Amino acid sequence: MRQTVLFAGIVCLLLSSGCLGLVSNEEIQTKLVVDVDQSTQLIETSYEQGEMISSSTATFTFDFSQTNSDVSVHTYGVDIDD
């Protein structure tokens, strides 16, 4: 009797073990859309007799508002590698 109950318990555990994990074969759809305000800008630094006399910088604006995903996206980042 005890072996029958033990065997039935093991069978139940084996049958229910497939229901306990996450479904990993589902594909998550993410579409990253990036719009840039300008494609090129000029960065200029002028020197006179070894001394910097003027410098200009460039600023690019990135728009991620058209990006969509099945899951929430928490952060975007740009590594400028200083």
Helices and strands: which structural class?
Answer: alpha+beta
Q: Quaternary arrangement of the chains shown?
A: single chain
Instruction: Using the alpha-carbon principal axes, give the shape.
Output: rod-shaped
Helix/strand order: HEEEEEE
The gist of it:
The protein is an alpha+beta fold.
Question: What's the topology here?
Answer:
Blueprint (H helix, E strand, L loop, with lengths): L1 H15 L13 E2 L3 E2 L8 E4 L2 E5 L6 E2 L4 E2 L13
Antiparallel strand pairs: 1-6, 2-5, 3-4
Verbal overview:
With 82 residues, the protein is of the alpha+beta class. It has a domain at 27-69. The chain contains 1 helix and 6 strands; from the N terminus they run H-E-E-E-E-E-E. The protein has one helix spanning 2-16; strands at residues 30-31, 35-36, 45-48, 51-55, 62-63, 68-69.
